[in-house]
Design brief:
This protein is mainly alpha-helical. The chain contains 8 helices and no strands. Helix 1 packs antiparallel against helix 8, helix 4 runs antiparallel to helix 5 and helix 5 crosses helix 8. It is elongated.
């Protein structure tokens, strides 16, 4: 039991950060920088312990999360807080585990987007937006503007981020 103590501390710290981010994103649609910064520093600090993964793996995981999901921010699919949260998760799990976590986040994001579209009666406008991606999205024409992403309710994506992270941590192929 004591041999798993460092892993349990890491999972508890990561879960605490995700829980606070979930609450903030659901309540205010914003993830505070203080939560993400505290999480990133905790992840790096835990990587430096004798049983930790090492600073290089931790920093690489954070950077892969930041750069990979940063592209989704550039195309306005995610908010900046979501990207920074995924980067902080990368500091906790390291590289290459962040790649597995990312796949789980994408999976849970798809489930969340579908459920959110059904719940808010915006499934059809969302599907039309996806269809328009291949044809020069975002369109500036008046005909396409009534389906603009800005007019649709924003999905609190921290739900998918936390669910995907916890899914990967709970899976049998989890290295943590």
């Amino acid at each position: 039991m004591l041999s798993r103590l460092p892993e349990m501390v890491q999972i508890m710290a990561l879960s605490a950060m995700l829980s606070v981010a979930l609450y903030q994103d659901a309540r205010r649609r914003k993830i505070p920088n203080t939560v993400v910064l505290a999480g990133a520093l905790t992840g790096i600090g835990l990587s430096l312990t004798p049983t930790g993964m090492g600073a290089m793996s931790s920093i690489s995981g954070g950077m892969v999360g930041l750069l990979g999901f940063g592209l989704l921010y550039v195309f306005r699919f995610l908010g900046a807080g979501d990207v920074k949260l995924i980067s902080a998760i990368g500091f906790f799990v390291g590289f290459p585990t962040i790649l597995k976590v990312s796949l789980c986040i994408f999976l849970m994001g798809g489930v969340l987007a579908f459920a959110w579209g059904v719940w808010t009666s915006q499934l059809m406008p969302s599907l039309l937006n996806l269809r328009s991606l291949g044809s020069g999205w975002p369109r500036k024409s008046p005909a396409a503007s009534h389906h603009a992403p800005e007019e649709m309710a924003q999905v609190p994506y921290a739900i998918a981020i936390a669910a995907g992270t916890w899914l990967q941590l709970a899976s049998p192929w989890s290295p943590i």
